[in-house]
Amino acid sequence: ESDILIPISANRFFSTRDRNVFLRYRGLFISSYLWCTILWSVGSGYDKFDRKEGIV
Q1: Which of 2, 6, 19, 44 measures 20 to 30 Å from 37, CA to CA?
Q2: What is the DSSP letter of 55?
């Protein structure tokens, strides 16, 4: 039986330790990114909208 989508030589076994290390660093990166955006108030810029003056 031939596997067309994934060649057998491309299958690599990842140990549980390798997987957990990858997931740990991914989680640390995502959480640090989210905390930085919260603490630095990213995206909460100053917008002035005045209908009388026509200032946006």
Answers
A1: 19
A2: B
Q: How far apart are CA 52 and CA 3, in angstroms?
A: 68
55 half-sphere exposure, CB direction, 13 A CA radius? 6
6-30 exposure pattern, b = at least 16 Cβ within 10 A, e = fewer: eeeeeeeeeeeeeeeeeeeeeeeee
Distance CA 30, CA 17 (A): 20
The pLDDT confidence band at residue 10, using thresholds 50, 70 and 90, is low
Break the chain into its structural domains and give their ranges. Answer: 29-56
Cα separation of 38 and 32, whole Å? 10
